[in-house]
Each structure stands twice: as C-alpha cells, then as structure tokens.
Design a protein that fits this description.
Chain B: This is Sugar ABC transporter ATP-binding protein. The complex is a heterotrimer of chains A (365), B (505) and C (320). With 365 residues, chain A is α/β, with parallel strands linked by helices. Chain A has 13 helices and 15 strands. The radius of gyration of chain C is 20 Å and the shape is globular.
Amino acid sequence: MKPTSLRARAAARTLLATGLVTGLALITGCAKSEDSAATTDKASAEQGDSGQVVASPSASGPTCAIDAYGGDKTDLKSATVGFSQSEKEANPFRIAETASIKEEAAKRGVKLLTANAQSQFSKQISDVQDLIAKGADLLVIAPLNSDGWEPVLRTAAAKHIPIVTVDRKINATACKDYVSFIGSDFVAQGRRAADRMIEATGGTGEIAILLGAAGNNVTTERTKGFEDRLKEKAPDLKVVFRQTGEFAREKGQSVTENLIQSKPGIKGIYAENDEMGLGAVNALKGAGKKPGDVKIVTIDGTRNAVQGIVDGWIDGVIESNPRFGPLAFQTLDAFTRGDAVAQDIVIEDSAYTSANAESDLGKAY
Amino acid sequence: MLSVTGVSKIFPGVRALSDVDFTARAGQVHALVGENGAGKSTLIKVLTGVHPPDAGEVRHDGRPVRFTTPLQAQQAGISTIYQEVNLVPLMSVARNLFLGREPRGRLGLIDFRRMRREADEALRALGIRVDVRRPLRELGVGAQQMVALARAVAVDARVVVMDEPTSSLEPREVHTLFEVIRLLRDRGVAVVYVSHRMDELYEICDAVTVLRDGRVVHTGPLAGLDRLRLVSLMLGRDIGEVRGEGLTKFTGSHHAAAEPVLNAEGLTVRHQLHEVSLSIRPGEVVGLGGLLGSGRSETARAVAGALPTDAGRVSVGGVPVRGGSPPAAIRAGISLLPEDRKAEGIVPGLSVRENIALAALPALSRFGLVDDARIDRIVDTFVRRLRIKTAGPHQKVGELSGGNQQKVLLARWLAVHPKVLLLDEPTRGIDVGAKAEVQALIDELAEDGLAVLLISSDTEELIEGSDRVVVLKDGRVVDELTGDAVTEDALLRAVAAVPAGGRDD
Amino acid sequence: MTELAVARGALDRGRLLRLAQQYGVYAGVAALLLFNFAFTPHFASAENFRTQAVQVAPVLIVALGMALAIGTEGVDLSVGSVMALATSLLSLYLGYGPWVAALVAVVGGVLVGLANGALVAFVGVQPIVATLALMVAARGLALVLLPQLKDVRDPGMSALGSGDVLGVPYLVLIAAALALLVAFVVRRSTFGRQLLAIGDSRPAARLAGLPVRRVLIVVYVCSGALAAVAGVLATARLTASDPTSLGTLMELSAITAVVVGGTPLSGGRVRIGGTVAGAVLIQLLTTTLVKHDLPPSWTQMAQAVVIVAAVYAARERGKR
C-alpha cells in the first residue's frame, strides 16, 4: 500500500502545483479585459469633492467632550488611528468607505492601521483588540453587528481610547463606551425614496418593493421609512409586491422577471439598493419594456445606478454616502482637542435625479 | 424459554414465513437449518425484534412479548450474533465489547482502564488474545466474530442466537466456540444455532428445526435423525437422489498440462507474506491450505494485484504482470473472486446484467459506448450456463440469494476469458444446493483448461476439490501436498507439524 | 382472509413508496403547474415559461455535474465558487472576444475539477473536504482576479444571455443539450456504467479492474466544467460579472435538485430526468410563492418540506 499511496500523493501534489502555477501564469500573463482603461483611477481622483455633510447641527443633540469620556487631550497628528472594516471591500460602498478613511488619514498625515473582518464578527472583535495591542490611540469602527461589543469596549475603556463608529450603531452608551456614531438615517432614506416615487408615479397605481437581505437593519429601516411616508402622503399608491432580492443584482433580476409577468400593470419599483435596481432594469429590458415604462427608485448612489438615470431607466437614486473619512477625522480632531462633539452625527445624503445625474456622475462611487 | 407460534411475515412480493412454530428451550442447543431463502434469517429477525411479525405470537418466558426494536430484545436477554459481524469497525475492541453498557467511573465518564482490563479478561476466557485497544476492523473476520460472541456472553444473555457463527472461523476457533456454547448450555441458556455444516450440527446440537420455503418441515431431537434424511428434508428431495450425488460435487483429479500458466515468485508483503511462491498449470486446481491469518487471502490478492507487494513477481504464460494494479492483472488473464462477496464482490444496486458485464465492459463497447446487444447475448449465455436464478437480467444483484450472487460473480469473471481464476471462499454462506453447483462448476472450468486457485476453510471441500494443496502458515509456504497425499489427515498434519508461532493475527 | 389483506396492504405500501420515489418529483411538478394554471394570473403565457426556463437553466446545468459527483458517492461543494471564478475569468479575457473568454472560463472550471478529482482519487481526501477546500480557494481566486462587480458590454455575451432561436432562448437550448448529453453518457457509455459501479461499491469496482481513479477525476472535471458553463451563462444573462455574489449557495440548490430528483446520496444511481424535474420543481415552488407575494421565509420552508419528503422516500427505499 505504502509505495503506491506515496507515489499517488506525489503525483497529486505535482498535478496541483502545475495546475496552480500554469493557471496563475495564464491568468496574470495575458489577461485582457473588455475595457482596459480602468475606471477605478477616475473614481478616486474625483471623489475628493464629495465628502459628507452633517445633516443635523451638532448643537441639537447630546454631545460628548473628553472630560466626560475620560482620557487626556492629545494632538491627532501625532496619534495612531485604527480602522476596523466589517465586510471585505468587494462592493462599491465598502471600497469607497475604506478608500475615504485611508485618503483622509494620508491627507492629515496621521498614522493609520487597518483591519478587515471579512464579514465574521469574531474576527472583527479580535481585529479591534489587535489594533489596540498594536498601539492605536483612537479607533474608527464600521461594526458588522450592533451587539456583542462588551469585551472590546472594556479593553478600550481601560486605556481611554476614543471610539467613533461609522455607518452602523452599536448597542452601548454613547460618551461612556464610545464617543460618537456617524452615519446615514436609513429611515430618512426610505422616506426620501418614497417622495421620489410619489413624484415619479403621480401618487397613484401599484408598485413593488425589492427588499434587501432579511434580518438586516438597513432593510427594515429603508422599508419602514418608505411605507410610512406612502401611507402618510399617497395612500393611493399601493404596494402590491414585496420580495427580497438579497441586495444582489441577479436575485433582483429574477424576482423582477416574475413580477412583471404576474403583475403587468406595475407602475413603479422601489429597490432598496442599486444592485437590485440594476437587476430590475435588466429584467425590464429583457421583457421588451421601454425606459420609463416602469419607474425605478433605488438607494446608494453607485456610478452604475447614476448612469442608469442618465440612460433613462432609473428615475431617482437616493444617496447613502460612504465617504466617512473627512467627517470621522474631523470629529476625532475636535474631540482630542477638547471640544464637545455630537453623540449622533447624521450625515446629509444627496440624491440624483434626471436633473443632476449627468453633471454629478463623477460624484457617484 | 423463547417461542413463536403461527408466525407469518410477508415482504413485498415474498412470503418469507408462513405459520411457523418454533421453541428454544433453556439448556438446549437448537439447530435451525434450511437452504438459503428458506426463512431462517427472517425467523431470527422476528425472534430478535428486527422485524415485527405480520401474524402470530412471540412468547418469552411464557409471556407474550412484542419487541419492536433489537434493543428491547437485548434488554430481555436475547443476544444475536449475525452472519455479518454487526459491530462498529472504527471503535476499539474493548469499546465494541462494552458498547452501550460501558463501565462508568466518577462523573459518569467512561472508565477506560477498567473497560480494557475487563475486555481483555473476557476475551482471554474465550481463548482469544488481541490488543483490545485496536480498532475492530484491523482484526480478521474470525477474530471479529469471536468479539461479537464475547459480547453476547458478557451481557449474561438468556437466549443466544447464532447465525452461521463458524463460517469464518478456523477449526481451532470452532473448537473454542463449541466450548463456549457448551458452557452456555450448562448455564441454562437457550442457544439457537444456524449453520450449513452437518458435522457441526451433529457435534453440538440437541434439537433441530428444518425450514423450507418459509414453512417448518421437521422439528425434533437431532439424535437419531440420519444425515442424509436431514439433507433430503432441507432440499426437499428423495434420499436416493441425494445419496447418489454424494456430499460434495467434485469429481476426482484433473489431467493437468505440463507447463504452469501462472508463476508467482517470492511474493512479500510486510507483516503478511514472506517469499510466497506458487505455480498453477492449466486445468489444475491448486488449494491453499492453512489457518485463518496464514496468508491465504493475502496471497490471492497479491497475485491479483489487489494487494501491493514489497517484492516478488507474477507472470502469466511467461509474461510478467505489473503488480499492485487489478486492471493489469485482469488484462493478463488473472481474475479474483474475493472473500468478502458483499463488500468487495457484487455491486448490489446494479442489475444482474450490469454486474456480469462490469469487468468485460471495455471489450463490450465501441467508442466508449456500450454495445447492449452483445451484453445481452453474453448475460443470457451465462445466466443459462450457470443456472443463475433471477427474476430477470434487470433484477438488482443485492436482492439475489448468496449462491446466485456468487454465480453472478463467476459469470463476471468468465466473461473476460481469464487464464487463471483465484477463488477465495467460493462457497461460504451459500446454501447446499448452490454449493454443489458451484463445486461442479469449478471442476468443469478446470476441465476446460483454466488454472484455478481454491481457498476454502471447509477442509472437506479443499481436499476433494484440489489436485494439489499448498499449505501456508504465518505468511510462508510450509508444505505442498500432491497426488495421494491430498488428504484431510495430511493437511492437518502439515498445519500442525510446524512449531506454532503463537500468533494468530 | 386477514393474511391476504395484510399481504396486499404491505404490497401496496411498498409499491406506493417506490412509485413516490420514482415519479414523486414529476407529480410535484405537475401539481404545481396545475395550481398555477388555476390560481396564478398570467401564468399560462409563453413569455412566462420562457422566463422560468431561463431562470432554471444555470441551476440545472450545475445540478447535472452534481448528480455525477453524487453518483460516485461524492459531492462537489466547489460548484458555486467555480461559477464565480468563471465569471471573473470571463471578464478578464473578454478583450479577446467572447469565445476565447468563455473557453478560458471553462478551462478554469476544468482545472478546479482536476484539483478536486486529484485530491479525491489520488490523495484519498473525502470529497466533502476536498471540494470544500477548493470552494474556498476558487472563490478567493475569483475575488483576487476581479474584486467587484464589473459590467459586461460585449454584444456577443448579451446576445447569448437574451437571444433565442424560434422563441427558445439560447440558455434553455444549451441546458437542454447538456442534460441530454449527460443522460446519454450515464446510460450508454462505459464511463457511465463504471461511474455507477464505483458509486455503489468502490472496493468491488476496484477488484473488478475498473479505472477508479480515472473515472473519479473525469467526474469532478465534468462537474467543474459544467459549473463554469453555468457561470458563463449566468454572466451573460446578468450582463455583469459579479464574483462576490454569483453562485453563492449554488451547491445547496444543486444538491437539492439532485436529491429531490431521486438520486440517492449514497451513490450508485444517477437520475438525470429526475434531476431536471427536481430543478424545475424548486424553481416553480419559488416562483409560485414569489408570484403570490408570500414572504421569502415561506420559500425556504417549502423547500425544506420538499427535501424532507424526498429524503424520507429515499430512506424507505434504502431499507429494503
């Protein structure tokens, strides 16, 4: 048995190695993608002018100052900032978010440590603990979950490390366990999408919602804002179809294909992110519809979706701005200098319509 | 002690038992005999709670009982040792022995040390010496069976059911087994004993029940029942007919050609074979004798390329065969009928037809597509020639009786026109009728010029079937019996002549 | 009298179960179709059937490869990742034209299949472990090659995704052709027979001199290549390469289709017709619930019920 199995093993190893090497050589050696002029450079070059703007003035809500939080005043320039990203940078939102933080750190000359939890919460906890161990004086966290942060918060509190969370809140006491939360108001995004939909459809008819992934707070809040506003402002606009597209283009496409067959009279589709909206556009094209036959409103503000407005397929895109860099560092700077900062910093998200899509295409991420 | 009255059991399409009465008494060894398909296994399964009866009643200690699971039967003191060992192969011998009733230490954890000690003692008492920490599957089939028996004895069973317990045991182990059975009988245990071997029945059993086609055809004390009468009851044939055919179907010796077709030299497999050499001439049946674990199966497997060798050469008709590769051996004309028919022989889910055609497929296809017409012809030929009893060529092989499965395997190999046929226990676990047919067939094949290697733990079969017997012990060739020396007596003496090594694994 | 009744009862029960095992999936499809004709508006239109067929095509193609792997008592968990890898490669090589790119994508699938097969056949790793390793590796490689969604604007690809011949979309034609091909190979080729024998009893197949390793490798290569084809077709339909989400949980959908179609996980049997029907059944189930706007969690529960029913039927058959 022994000699053959050894031989077999060696053969398998050689086979695997050869396969991998030739494969990689082939892939990297002579790849030639469709449009070689990469769009990523363009995107990063143009993103500077679209940093976030605070929606609610800091005076309106509770604030936090360094005396209340504990710790000493420092100068941000000499400090080390740790950034913990929740999901891998595989979608436009996360890519733009991480890029924005890195860019702002470089601009201010602050030393930045980064980590990515790859959508695993346990990894994010150990990521943050690593960042602290590596000497981070301040932390910016994009949390994957809202709960389960106690161990990290205890460690950070012992060292008086100020924490700013971005894009998602954590369940803890502001100004005790963390300093501030900077993020979008997803309910407000839903409300604004509803306004856009009412305007596009004229306030009557049947519409559909492509829900995000189930059990996600973004999904529930964007749905709540949208439906509440419809009830309040346009009771004649009936939601007759609610199905999940799981935030993915393919799922959005197949669900929409079924939708337009079973409900041919549908007037509008509200997609809770751009990808599902673009899937819906694919489905409409496949069914032989013309641009504008069915009104589509989406949320996020990716370049592809804004291009969709320019092409006439999408009616409105409500932005959810991922560029947290400037605002996060501004908050940390003010806080470490001793100024009071707001505990909840809600950012102003802009919107794209046919009026501004073409001119603002560069702002989209 | 344990009895059934008027039991019937019906499987879809088959009436396995009809109106069967059977009683096992305390302190008595009761033989249960019948051809395959007579309903023995089904009756045992009814007794032990595997199958509930469709009609009739099971009484235990005089009270009617209804076991719905084997566990309930076990708790009532009924232990079973099946034909196929049904223990957990990956667990250690000790764990298997104590499965479900492990000695607990403090905290309710398994007390491994005590378990090993007790396991060792229990096995020693039965004359078996193995390392109880080894996984069960590393033991030979015979040793595994003894572990199963030790388990049955250890649980203080009041009824012990044995389904062909000796089919994979050595004479010495059979002797030990009988000692244990007598011990059980003297303790007042009721033993139900199923076997195909006449000698054993007459040696150990007190009473006998004969089943045929799901019905009881005879029940009573064994003493005074003539052997031939018993055989005729089982077969349902007249005494004269049986007597005329003799007990085995072999006819004398064959006229063997001069030049050997198979030459194996110096086959060595670490810990298993040491420089085993043998040669077989066309038309010759060479028997491999020796105890369990002496290297008989290993020799056959090494020749057939199923067991990679560390040294040694095999050649067929003077052409060397690449070792360690069954396809190479098959191409050279060597075919092996493996010992473990169910696990290594048949492909149970495929039809009779597919099983017969399996090895010959490359020859029966064109451009990678199978030629169904040719397969049908070949299958048809063999089903008729070997008298394979089947509902049709598309019946699954798993549904056939053991004897017919064995015939299907023989057909599979004959379809590739081999020069050398290695038969490892060709008649184990098949009924008397089929056994005779297989034995006659082996004879016929040798007459046709095939070189046959025969391995059998049935000494009678080995002696009568072989022209020459090569005797193995501890993986070495120790003797060779030829001509008139091929007798049971000489074989036993050859095995016994060598100083015992003291190892039996 | 009683005995006779008992006998017939047992017989009918056994027969019924066997029938349920063999034709249950077709009955399920028929029942769902009837339900939809009766209660779903706009269901009985050519357009609708086209949509359903197009949507089921990628799952079906993956399930064909999966059926082969399951037939050898194995499983191929890497199929979803292979789809992602295929879409990445396709996007990277589209500059050479759609044919070259599609070929490169399929070669990628073949290489993953080769690695799977080598691990299973030569190194002796259990299929579930080997393909799990490749599942992680292939998805990782796909994301290294193409980190995020990228639009595919090639007219050839979009024609493949939405074009048709006499009203039958290319996707459906390709899936049907592949299903027929695989069915033919399983039924009529020596490879197919050998595959089944190996799946039913590996030791017996080995001793019967079958080329066990070669067959295993070919099976996983086929599975990889079919998954890659499915990846290319899904990309064409989406007109975008999305390695982050394409093919996620595809392995489960494919296994479901195969199992529901009556192919036992214990190997030794491959039912291509049943697999096709299984994929269609799951698709119709999802569609029915979507068209009636029932909550998505219902779809998952309905799928679970179907799987349990299929496994129950398989178990009953296995007992005899």
